[in-house]
Amino acid sequence: MSTHGKLMLGACLSLAVLAGCGGQQASGPAAAPAPPAKSAAPARQAAPAGQLARADVERVLMQGPPWILRRVPVEEVVRAGAFIGWKILALPPDWSALELKPGDVVTQVNGTPLERPDDLFAAYRALASANELKIAYEREGTARELVMPIFGPPSQETVKAFDSDSPPRRPTTARPRGTTVIEEDDGGTSLESGEM
After folding, report:
1. Over the stretch 121-179, which tens digit does the pLDDT of each residue have?
2. Into how many domains does the chain fold?
3. Which CATH number do you get for residue 62?
4. Which of 67, 128, 138, 175 has the most crowded Cβ, counting Cβ within 10 A?
């Protein structure tokens, strides 16, 4: 299976991780809480224990699959020539409260098998409006399922972003990252054509 498949599985696992960690990411030393801002918008409610906060789900979806792939390495599992699922190789130590463990093989997300890139993207897209996250997996040959309700209604912006057949665009940074290579056609002959 392709790297694209690993990316999609990673995004789905990130949602499970948010539930296992209370939806919070580790950060530096805690600062004093800021005074509550006065606004007309209602305060965001915390999700009940064992549920995913809709805002956390949407944040992960909008960050894209690479966000989790940097945190959870996986490898494909093939038995008797058939693709089975994705084996979790490691989880960060601060995700120890999560039901999933290294060695577990994830086979489906919300009922969608994770065999082809199209399946993986369909499962990822469906999470934008899903009411729960279901991860079917195997542990030591025994089938299991992790089910976490998603607390709160989906935002229209997120649902709209995932209506298309391609991933939503992430906002660009003000400063380009990486290396830019500009190639010019010097009018010479191509080396591939065999002419010199």
Report:
1. 788 788 888 999 999 999 999 999 999 999 999 988 888 888 866 656 655 555 656 67
2. 1
3. 2.30.42.10
4. 128
Tens of pLDDT, residues 109-130: 999 998 877 787 788 788 888 9
Instruction: Enumerate residues 6+ apart whose C-beta is below 8 A from 69.
Output: 6, 7, 10
Distance CA 106, CA 88 (A): 8
Rounded Cα distance between 50 and 19, Å, is 6
The structure tokens listed for 21 are 């960690």
Beta-strand pair 52-53/132-139: unpaired
Residue 168 lies in a domain: no
- Look up tokens 């290294």; give the residue: 102
Question: Do 13 and 120 contact (CB within 8 A), yes or no?
Answer: no
Select from 150, 152, 155, 158 the least CA-distant residue to 52.
150
Tokens of 36: 């509550």
What pTM did the predictor assign?
0.63
Distance CA 22, CA 185 (A): 54
Estimate the crossing angle of helix 3-20 against helix 54-63, to 10 degrees. Answer: 160
